[in-house]
Each structure stands twice: as C-alpha cells, then as structure tokens.
Amino acid sequence: MRFSILPVLALAGTFTSVLSAPTPEPRAIERRSTTQASIISSLITTVVPSLSAINATAHTVTPASAPAALALAEAAAKTEISVVVSAFTASTAQLKALNTKRDTTAIATRQATVPLGVLLGELVADVLAAVDALLNALGLGPASGLLAPLGPALSGLLLALELVVDDLLAAVETLVNDLLTGLAAGLILAK
Fold first, then answer.
1. Who wins on pLDDT, 39 or 164?
2. Are 126 and 49 in contact (CB under 8 A)?
C-alpha cells in the first residue's frame, strides 16, 4: 500500500486557511441585530395601541351603517393610521441610520433575545389584522384611500432591514467559497 502525505497536507491546509482568518477583538463585535430587534420591539409597543384602536373602531360599524357613523369611523381610523405611518417612518430612519454607521470589518452577531423574524411576523400580523378589520367595516372603496400611506411605510421599514440578510448571505458565501476552494485544491493534489 502506498501512502502519500500530499492529500493530508491539502486537507489540513483547507482547515488552516479557514481558521487562520483574523479574529476581531470582543469590542469590535457589533450587535446590530440586537439593536434592530429593539427598534422593532419599541415600534410594536408604539403601534399596537393604534392598531387596537383601529380594530375597535372597525368593529363598531359595517358598510351598511349610517353615513355619519361611517364618517366618524373613517376619521378615527385616519388619525390612528397617521400615527402608525409616522411610527414606521421614524423606525425606518433609525434603522437606516444604524445601517449607515456600520463597520464593514466588524462581525454582526445574530443573537437577540427575541429573533428579529418573530418580531417582524408579529408586526405584520398586527397590521394585517387591522387592515382586514378596516376593509370589512368600511368596504374596499373608503378603506383603500385610508390605507394608501400604510403600504409604502411598511415597505420602507422592511427594506431598511435588508442589510441584515445581505450581511448574513455575504458571510455564508465567503465561508462556502473558501471551503470549496480549499477542497478543490485538496482533490487536485490528491490525484
């Protein structure tokens, strides 16, 4: 049996190249995901009373209600929607400011007490419940005019969180590329 040291060295080189990457100091670790989760958590705390008020208002009327009752419900819903839109806009500005201050050499940790995805799911579910209640109460025509500013505000908020996913995908891509390059070199040397 013939034994060659070259494949062993190539395999060791693969793992050494991954492990030899510089490790940042603990203070260089950025906790951006935790900060983003706290921004979204405070946003939920801010908008839930307004969304609850929209739900309560929506449950007091139907499309067949008196025009005066519908007008009062529309006015109350419009006030609460403007509060929600302004909260979305303020949180979007905070997230964008956080994303522009990021250090590209720092490693972002993805550990928050409540995962960011869970918070976003809760926020979107609350918004959709309020929108559904408003559509059922007022009908499509009047409600669509009230809900027009809500869509772009929610979209802007979600787009401000895009860098979390982008950074994670870039880190995974770099890791996989390095591993595959080392593995390919090891297989070539093994032949």
1. 39
2. no
CA distance 84 to 37: 18
Q: pLDDT at position 140, please?
A: 79
* CA 66-69-70 angle, 5° bins: 85
pLDDT band at residue 29 under the 50/70/90 scheme = very low
Cα–Cα distance measured from residue 185 to residue 190, given in angstroms and rounded to the nearest whole number: 9
- CB-based contacts of 69: which residues, under 8 Å, 6+ apart? 60, 61
Find the range with the poorest average confidence among 44-53, 163-172, 177-186: 163-172
Would you call 74 helix, strand, or coil by DSSP? helix
The model's pTM is: 0.66
Q: Give the side-chain half-sphere CA count within 13 A for 176.
A: 6
| Nearest residue to 86 (alpha-carbon basis) of 156, 14, 2 | 156
**CA-CA distance, 18 to 41, in Å (whole number)?**
36
Sequence-distant (6+) residues with CB within 8 A of 184 are: none
156: which 2 tokens?
Answer: 């802007």
**Secondary structure class of 60 (helix, strand, coil):** coil
| Residue whose pair of structure tokens reads 């060659």 in the numeric block | 4
Angle, vertex CA 166, rays to CA 161 and CA 167, nearest 5: 100
